[in-house]
Amino acid sequence: MATAADSKLTFTRLPHPAPVPEDAREQALADPGFGTVFSDHMVVIDWDEGTGWHDARIGPREPLALDPATAVLHYAQEIFEGLKAYRLADGSMALFRPEENARRFNQSARRLAMPELPEETFIAACLELVKTDRDWFPSLAGGSLYLRPFMFASEPFLGVRPAKQYKFLVIASPAGNYFKSGAPAVSIWVSSDYTRAAPGGTGAAKCGGNYAASLVPQAEAIERGHDQVVFLDAAEHKWIEELGGMNLFFVMDDGTIITPPLGGTILPGITRNSLITLAREEGLTIREERYSIDQWRDDAASGRLLETFACGTAAVVTAVGRVASRDGEFTIGSGGPGQLTTKLREKLVGIQRGTVEDTHGWVQRVD
Ligand code: PLP
Ligand code: COI
């Protein structure tokens, strides 16, 4: 597979001739929810086999014209990332660990037989968009500008092989709460019929196909009155893997925390990695090891398990209060956010927003 050209790309800037008027923008920013409001601009960079990455530009966000034979529409050769830009307490803007998203993007690219994008170009593209659409930060507390970098096979071709043309884009969406209810703890449904990823598959890659396959079990969870689906491993239907869009942590009464290991079937979450670091600094023992659904139920009943929380860029750190499966339901702790969930969430959010000291160099200022 071809790798990215080394040359540094410069962005052509095409300002929007008719951006959203200020009053309409302010209205959209008052309570944007998640994923429905979009900013004025987008970044586009093209790749083809002969030239590598070229034509980096930032211009008006607009529909894409695609040939009906475009490879991604047939074989789903597509990957994406999700990261947030924050307004810090002092009014400046920052990204959280964007180099980790850039690195994971290239891991996904390799798994999907796509060209890698130089990490510096990935980050530069995100910074360009945040600077251009700096007026699109939501006004509500806890709001952020969610960035969605993605790449797809743009070659019109129906043979099954890696495409020879790709497009990389970044769009931005002002974001509030990921969960509509805004409830302090979510309720999750354990899928017995469906799995998300198998060994040797694409579970560790952030590709659209993984999410397409999660929609039926996610819809089943919603129909049954829950917020999210939790997937078990594909081989034994026993080991807890992750939610449709979040990693999981289990807090025990002896101060240890368990989280499923990165064995290729779950996404290596950047929030997961950050929380492991923060928890270890608090003197807690984190065990990256397999944890079964039966053990989860038994530990919740015996009181050995104090808390469970889910984490990810979109959902930040969210307590799991209730778990349901075909075998019945159980509640975790008091059913609301536990002490450690709250503490770790506050620490992480504090670092992201500049109110807690960033001792790891995780926060990258935009200006
Ligand atoms: N697991 C899945 C399947 C996800 O989609 C996400 C979200 O990106 C995560 C975990 C959490 O990853 P991160 O913390 O990097 O956002
Ligand atoms: C994220 O947290 O960034 C995700 O990608 C999860 C979901 C919105 C797909």
Automatic annotation (TrEMBL):
CDD domains: BCAT_beta_family
Coiled-coil regions, chain positions: none
Top EC category: transferase
Pfam family, one: Aminotran_4
InterPro entries: Aminotrans_IV, Aminotrans_IV_CS, Aminotransferase-like, B_amino_transII, BCAT-like_C, BCAT-like_N, BCAT_family
Gene Ontology molecular function terms on file: L-isoleucine-2-oxoglutarate transaminase activity; L-leucine-2-oxoglutarate transaminase activity; L-valine-2-oxoglutarate transaminase activity
EC number of the protein: 2.6.1.42
Catalytic activities: L-valine + 2-oxoglutarate = 3-methyl-2-oxobutanoate + L-glutamate; L-leucine + 2-oxoglutarate = 4-methyl-2-oxopentanoate + L-glutamate; L-isoleucine + 2-oxoglutarate = (S)-3-methyl-2-oxopentanoate + L-glutamate
Taxonomy, superkingdom: Bacteria
Record's keyword terms, sorted: Amino-acid biosynthesis, Aminotransferase, Branched-chain amino acid biosynthesis, Pyridoxal phosphate, Transferase
Residues recorded with modification N6-(pyridoxal phosphate)lysine: 206
Gene3D superfamilies: 3.30.470.10, D-amino Acid Aminotransferase, subunit A, domain 2 (3.20.10.10)
Spans annotated as Disordered: 1-20
Pathway assigned in UniProt: Amino-acid biosynthesis; L-leucine biosynthesis; L-leucine from 3-methyl-2-oxobutanoate: step 4/4; Amino-acid biosynthesis; L-valine biosynthesis; L-valine from pyruvate: step 4/4; Amino-acid biosynthesis; L-isoleucine biosynthesis; L-isoleucine from 2-oxobutanoate: step 4/4
Similarity-based family: Belongs to the class-IV pyridoxal-phosphate-dependent aminotransferase family.
Role, per record: Acts on leucine, isoleucine and valine.
PANTHER family: BRANCHED-CHAIN-AMINO-ACID AMINOTRANSFERASE, SUBGROUP IIII AMINOTRANSFERASE
The protein's name: Branched-chain-amino-acid aminotransferase
Species, as recorded: Altericroceibacterium spongiae
